Amino acid sequence: VAADSVSRQRSTNNPFGYDGRSWLIGPAARVEQFRGSRPDSAVLRGLARADGFAPMDMMMSIFEQYGARPIFILLPFKGPWADYLGISKRTRLEVYATARAYARRRGVRLVTFEAYDDDPLFLADRSHPIGKAWFVIDELLDNFYHGRLDGPLD
Length: 154
Known about the structure:
Largest sheet: 2 strands, parallel
């Protein structure tokens, strides 16, 4: 895909698929400090917190009050970087599963994009879409807006 080619060209200064500029102004200078800094236990502890979805609950109450039917997008982890931080694939899958369970309980449409978890070129850094991601997200939103999505998404 052309978008991957451009992203690949822009990420030659690091092994994680970070956009080169994002890498330089972000973790490059402290990369060794990040190794193993987010063990699974810390991620799972945060996931288990009772108030972890409180902001979503507040938003959902507002949406329900106005009759809105939103779609929630959970961007994937940047898998290679998450591995470096110490967040295992198993824990990342648990995060996606927890989000899906919450969405089912609340009757919310959710897309996790977890299929792109191992794709180093889907995000420019740990949280910003780039290239191919924008094409995928744009198609999803267009289909959602025009009512071409049926049933639960994830």
